[in-house]
């Protein structure tokens, strides 16, 4: 699919917010509207909202919710032999029915490369990140000898903050046996993600996992190996670009972060959130669709939806699962 199907009408009809008639309002995350369905299930609706630097953009990205939902479902299915996942069903392109878990309040970040936040810390001269020692003399985007775990606290509001594994245990945020299990599972899932990416000509650079407990079982929740939670580089040009000190070709939300920084926005106090021009929204859509195609091997097939129609559908879908 090319961007000719992204008409002005499609741009005007992005799913920015859902409201299911006769249902308690959802928890609205930056990207998903999360409806509680009884004691043990959630109805998670992926909207077309896009966030960067912890800010939701004023304009949405056409079909982003569908791409994210499908990519997460695909990636969850590829790791379910390694860890319990929250997936119960995907009854609509924008919707996942999930096990309602007690979330573990840590973002489990794994990095294969010195990229993004890690690279910014490194450039500032620091040589430890979340308690992990970083060797001297590394270049931006260079691979670590082994992937590293650089957790962050999942803050209720505002910025997530880096935390070391030692501190997670000392502050009793997670019990030590539980943490051991989480870290082992996270590394295994990451290794699988790298393998899948590699087989499709991509490098899985870094990612963020969230875990929860369901009936006491460690369960992978939220989303996995999507463009929002992960960075990917194209593998074929990686070595050459690294050698020549050129930026990597990326398939992820990094594209948006870079554009925002060019406009002078890094999410800091006093900075104004720029409007996303339609031409740029189309480009972001193309990136998401491209990652979907690369990773799954199938072209993304959009299902046009209007928000009113979606709200009605959600009402009927949710009543089946309550
Ligand atoms: N299976 C699950 N059980 C409980 N909470 C979940 C589950 N899956 C996702 N969540 C939570 O639902 C929210 C998803 O919405 P999102 O837009 O990603 O929110 P956020 O802005 O907090 O990142 C997140 O807070 C995530 O932790
Ligand atoms: Mg999230």
Automatic annotation (TrEMBL):
Catalytic reaction equation(s): 5-amino-1-(5-phospho-D-ribosyl)imidazole-4-carboxylate + L-aspartate + ATP = (2S)-2-[5-amino-1-(5-phospho-beta-D-ribosyl)imidazole-4-carboxamido]succinate + ADP + phosphate + 2 H(+)
Organism superkingdom: Bacteria
Sequence ranges assigned to domain SAICAR synthetase/ADE2 N-terminal in this UniProt record: 27-265
MF GO annotations: ATP binding; phosphoribosylaminoimidazolesuccinocarboxamide synthase activity
EC class name: ligase
Pathway linked to the protein: Purine metabolism; IMP biosynthesis via de novo pathway; 5-amino-1-(5-phospho-D-ribosyl)imidazole-4-carboxamide from 5-amino-1-(5-phospho-D-ribosyl)imidazole-4-carboxylate: step 1/2
Keywords of the record: ATP-binding, Ligase, Nucleotide-binding, Purine biosynthesis
Listed EC numbers: 6.3.2.6
GO CC aspect terms: cytoplasm
UniProt GO BP: 'de novo' IMP biosynthetic process
UniProt KW S-adenosyl-L-methionine keyword: no
Protein's UniProt keywords contain Ligase: yes
Classification via PANTHER family: PHOSPHORIBOSYLAMINOIMIDAZOLE-SUCCINOCARBOXAMIDE SYNTHASE
Protein name, as recorded: Phosphoribosylaminoimidazole-succinocarboxamide synthase
Organism expressing this protein natively: Fodinibius roseus
Lineage: Bacteria, Pseudomonadati, Balneolota, Balneolia, Balneolales
Gene: purC
């Amino acid at each position: 699919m090319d961007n000719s199907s992204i008409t002005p009408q499609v741009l005007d009809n992005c799913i920015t917010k859902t409201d299911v008639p006769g249902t308690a309002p959802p928890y609205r995350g930056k990207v998903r509207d999360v409806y509680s369905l009884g004691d043990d299930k959630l109805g998670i609706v992926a909207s077309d909202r896009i966030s960067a630097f912890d800010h939701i953009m004023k304009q949405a990205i056409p079909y982003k919710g569908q791409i994210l939902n499908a990519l997460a479902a695909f990636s969850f299915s590829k790791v379910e032999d390694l860890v319990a996942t929250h997936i119960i069903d995907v009854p609509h392109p924008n919707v996942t029915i999930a096990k309602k878990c007690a979330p573990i309040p840590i973002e489990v970040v794994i990095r294969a490369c010195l990229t993004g936040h890690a690279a910014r810390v490194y450039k500032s001269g620091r040589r430890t990140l979340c308690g992990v020692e970083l060797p001297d003399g590394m270049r931006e985007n260079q691979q670590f000898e082994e992937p590293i775990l650089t957790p962050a606290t999942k803050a209720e509001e505002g910025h997530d903050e880096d935390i070391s594994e030692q501190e997670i245990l000392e502050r009793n945020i997670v019990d030590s046996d539980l943490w051991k299990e989480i870290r082992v599972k996270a590394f295994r899932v990451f290794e699988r993600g790298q393998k899948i990416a590699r087989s499709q000509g991509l490098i899985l650079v870094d990612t963020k996992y969230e875990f929860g407990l369901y009936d006491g079982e460690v369960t992978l929740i939220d989303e996995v190996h999507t463009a929002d939670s992960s960075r990917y580089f194209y593998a074929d040009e990686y070595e050459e670009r690294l050698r020549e000190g050129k930026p990597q070709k990326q398939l992820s939300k990094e594209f948006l972060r870079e554009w925002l920084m060019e406009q002078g926005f890094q999410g800091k106090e006093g900075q104004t959130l720029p409007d996303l021009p339609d031409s740029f929204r189309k480009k972001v859509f193309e990136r998401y669709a491209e990652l979907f195609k690369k990773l799954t091997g199938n072209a993304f097939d959009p299902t046009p939806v209007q928000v009113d129609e979606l709200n009605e559908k959600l009402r009927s879908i949710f009543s089946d699962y309550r």
